[in-house]
Sequence to fold (1125 residues):
Amino acid sequence: MNTRRIASALALAAVLGTPAFAQDRGGILNFARYDGSQLVDPIYADRNPDIWMVASLFDTLLRLGADGKSVEPGLAESHEMSADGRTVTLKLRSGLTFADGSPLTGADVIFSLDRARNGDLSSWAGLIGSIDKVTADGDMITIALKTPDPTILTMLATFNTAIVSKAAFDAAPGATDQEKSAAIFAKGGPGVGSGPFYLCGFEQGATMDFCANKGYWRQGADGKPLPYLDGVHFQVIPDDATRILKLQAGEVDVAEFVPFARVAELQADEKLNMELFPSTRIIYSPINVRATRADGSPNPLADVRVRQALNYATDKAALIGLVLHGAGKPMSSPLMAAATQDSIDMSPLYGYDIEKAKALIAEAGLPAGTKITFTTLAGSADDATIFAALQQMWAPLGIDLVVEQVDGPTRGAKNRSGEFDIHTYGWVNDVNDASQVVGWLGHTPTANAVGTGWEDATFNSLYEAAQTEMDPAKRADEFAQMQKIYAEAAPLLFMYETPFAVAVSKQVSGYVQTPLGANVFEEATVSR
Amino acid sequence: MSDVTLPLPESRSRLALALRRPGFLMGAAIIGLSTLLALFPWLFAPYDPNFIDYTAVGQPPSAAHPFGTDMLGRDALSRVIWAYRINMQMAILATIFALLIGVTVGALVGYYRGVADMVFGRFVDAIITFPFLVLVIAVVAVLGPGLINMYIAITLVGWVYYARLMRAEVIGQMGNDYAAAGLVMGYSDRRIIFRHLLPNAITPVIVYWMTDMALAILLGSSLGYLGLGAQPPQSEWGVLIAEGRNFITTAWWLSLMPGIAIVLTGLGFSLLGDAMADLLRPRG
Amino acid sequence: MKSLAYILKRLLLMVPTFAIVMVIIFLLVRMLPGDPAIAIAGDKASDADLAAIRERLGLTEPLLVQFWLFLTNTLQGDLGRSIMLKAPTLGVILDRLPTTAFLTLYAVTLSLLIAGPLAFVAALNRGRWPDAAIRAVFQVGLSMPVFYIGLILLTFLAARARLFPVGGIGHGFVENLHQLFLPAMTIALYTSAIVMRNLRAAIIEVLDADYVQFARAKGLSSRLILGRHVLRNALISTVTLLGLSIGNLMSGTLVTETVFAVPGVGRLMLEAIFARDYPLIQGLTLTFAILVSAVFLLTDLVQSWLDPRMRLT
Fold:
C-alpha cells in the first residue's frame, strides 16, 4: 500500500467513523506506586495495595454511584430487595463474559459468593455473614438472608464480593483455594475476571501490567467498550522523592501518595495536575481510658475531663498545617470521615480553646508535670511531627509528653494489651458503610473500642440495633446518636482527615481514586 | 637484667615530623572544632534546634537563618550544629566498647590458644560471613530502632573485628624474644599479657580504631537515614538528610549541609588516622 | 590433587562455621520483638486467629524443637512463606537475586575501570602532584556515606541533567546498563577508593622489588615490566581485596537499592525488617551469608590459582 492510499484510507475512516468528538483511545499509562500488590483476589486481598486494585480486574454485581453513597447496577442490570428484607434478587446482564471471552453465568456468581462468605478462606467473610444461600436460575440470582441486613446491597458493590471464574479455579493447579488463586495470579492472563482490565505481567515488588479487556460491558463516551487505555504499567517506587522525580522526569504519568509537604510545589508545576481525592482516611490517636495503667498506677486519662482538655488544647489547624501542609481538614465526625455514609457534621469538633482546656485540667485536678507517654511509629516522619507539635501544644496544660517509638506490630500488641497512654493510628474504610469503622472505634465487643477500653452500654446497644435496622432514616439516627455519645466521651484524640494526594501528568485525564482508595483506570486516557 | 627492654616504636624526631604533616594538622583542626561544637552546641547554634515555628516553614537561607528553615520551621543551621553532639558521640560510643571487649578477648585467645581459640576462630568466620550492615540492621531490628540500640548492635558485631586483629598481633608478639624471655623468667600470665604483649600489640588496633571512628559516623548516619538509627525529632545528620530528601530539587541546602558535615568529620578522622598510622608504624 | 584436597579442607571448615551461622540467624529472628502472629494477621485479627497462627508456625514448641525444625526445613530448601509477600521465601529471594548480582558485578567492573588507570598514574608519579591529587579526591570519597553519594548523583545526573533514569530497573542487559548506571556508580565510587589505595600500594611494592629493579637494570622496557610483573601482582592483590570486600559491596547494595528504588535483595532486606517479615529476614540473612562465603571460597581458589605460593595456608 503506498502512502497516498494510506492517506485516503485514513481520510475515509475519519469521515465515516468519527463520532461527535474525538475520544482519546489507546496507549499505556505509566503509574508509580508506593507499594506493590502481592495477590489481587477479591477474598485474599487484605492489604491496601491489593484491595485497591481488585475492581480493575474483577467486577461486582452492583457498583457504587459517583457520590459513593448510592448503589447502581453492575454485572446485575437490576436488583430488588424483598419487603421482609430477607431476599435479594438480581438479574445478570445478557452476554456477559470474562476477559478471555468465556461466558459469565450464575454458576460463577454462586461460586464467588460462596467463596467470599467462607470464613475459612476469606478474612472478609464476616461482612456478608447474613447470607444464608445463593441460588441461580438462568440470569436470575437469588440471595437468601438469615436476617435482614441493611448493608447487603453495599456489600454486593464491594471488592470482596467481586465475581471470579469458576472454570478458571477448577482448572488451576493447587490443592487449596488459596493455592489455586496464587497459581492463577502468578500465571496472569484474561481467564479469571471480567473487570475492565486483566493482569498481563507481574514481577513481584517491581512491576505489574494490566491489559485492556476488549470485551468489557461498560461503554465509553464514544459508544465503544471501556477502557480507553490499552493498558497500565505499574512500577513500585517506595521512596517518595524518587517517585516524584520519576514523574517530573516524564518517566511515569502518575505518582501516588505524594507527601503533603510537596503538594504546593507540585500544584505550581504547569506540567502536572495535583489531585487531592477526597478519602475516608482519618488520623486519630486512641487514648487509654482504663482506670489504671498497665503497670498498675492510676491513669490520669481515665478522667473524661482530661481527655476533653487534650482535645481542646490540640490546635488542629496548626497540626494540619505542619503535617499536611494545609491539604486536609479537621475531623468533623468523631467516628468517621465526612465522606462516609451516615456521618454527621459536628464541626468544630473540639475547636482549639486553650482556656477551656486549662479550666478542665484544673477541674480534674491534674498535677503539673504529669507525664504522659505518646507512642509513635519509629521511622514515621508524620508521627515525629505530630509528637513534636503535641508536646509544644500541651505544655501549657502542665503535661510532660514523652515519646516512645515502636514498630507496627509492637504498636498493635500494645493496643491489644492496653500498655499505652496515647498512640498514633489511622483508618481507611474498606466498605462504604459506617458500621465497619464504628464497630472498630466504639463497639467494645468488636475491638475494645480501638483498644482504649472505653465502654458505653447505650452506644453498644445502638450499634447492635443498627446492624439489622432496615429503615435508612432510623439507622442514620442511631449512628447520629452514637457519634454524639462518642464525641462527649472523647476516647480518642480527634485529629484530621487526609485526602489521597496523587500527582498526574497533564497528558492524563479521567484517573480517579475513590474515597475508599480504589484506583480507577476505566475512564482514564492518555494523550501523547 | 631487671626487666625485658621494650622496643620503642617511636622516636622524638619521627613524632615531630608526623605532627608537621599538613594532613595531621588539618585532621586535628577539624576534629578539634567538631569536638567543641559537640560539647558546647548552644554557644554556636543561633536557635533551639527543636523549636517549631509554623510561620516560618521551608525558608531559603537568609541572614536570620543561614541554612534556611526546615519543613517545620526549625532553624537548619542549629539542627546541623546540635547534630554534632550525636554524631561525634557515635564515633566514640559505637567503637569504644567493641575496642575494649575485642582487645580483651583477642589477647586472651591469642595468648592461651587451645579450644577457646578454635571456637573463637569458627565464631569469627561465622560473623564475617554476614555483611556488616546486614548483621547490624538485623540486630537493630531485634532491639528496635534508636540510638542506644544502634550502639549495642554495632558493638555486638564490631568487637569481633578488634578481637581478630588483637589475636593476630598477640600471636605475632609471642614469637618475639621478649615474650619468650618473659615466659622463661617465670612471669605470671597476667604480667606477660598486660605488661608486655598488650602495649606492643595494641598499636595496629589503635590505628584501626581511628579509621573505625570515621566508619562509625558513616554507618550511624546511614542507619539514621534509613530510619533505624537516631529517631526524629533528634538532630542527626543522616536523619536531617532523610528529612531534606523530599526537597532535594527545591530546597537542596537542607540535605547538602548535613552531608558536608559528615564528609568533613569523616575526613578529619581519616587524616588523623593516617597520621597516627605513619607515626606508630614500625620502622623497617 | 593438591588443590582438590585444599578445596575439601576449605569446604569442611565451612560446616562448623555454618552451624554457628544458623544458630545466630535462628536466635536473631526468635528474639525479634512483636508477635509474628500479629504481623501476619494484622491488628484487626481475633485472639483465636492469633493462637491458631502461633500453633501453625510451631511457635508454641520448645526452642530446641523449633531450631531443629528450622534447620531441617532449611536444609530441604524450605525457608517458609514470606508474610508480607505471601509467597515462598526462597522463590522471592531467587527472583530478586539476579538484579542484585548484576548491580554488584556492574559496580565491581566500574570500580576497576576507575581505580585501575588512576592507581597506575598515582603509583608512577609517586610523591608528585598527580599522586597527591588522586589520593585527596579518593580520600574525600571514602568519607562520604554511600547514600549521600547516591543522592548527589541522583539529584544532578538524573533529576537535573536527565542523563539517567531516576530509579527502578529496565528490561534486558543493555537497557539495565543504562538504567542501573547511577546505582552501580554509587557503589563503585566508594569501592574504587579502596581498590585504588590498595592497587597503588601493590604497584609501588612491585616497582620497588629487587627483581623489578634488576629487570630494569637489564634494560627491559618499562612496558614489559609493567605487563609481566606489575599487572600480575596487582591483579592478585585486587582480587583478594575485592573478594574480602564482598560484605561491604553487599552492604552498599542495601543502601543503594533503597535510594534508587532497585528491586533487589538489598531493598527487600530493609522492607522485610520494617514489615517484621520473620521468614524473609531469616532467608535473606542466610542468603547473604551463603553469598559471602561462596565469594570467599572463590577468592581463595582464584588466589591460589594465580599465586601457587599461597596454597599452603
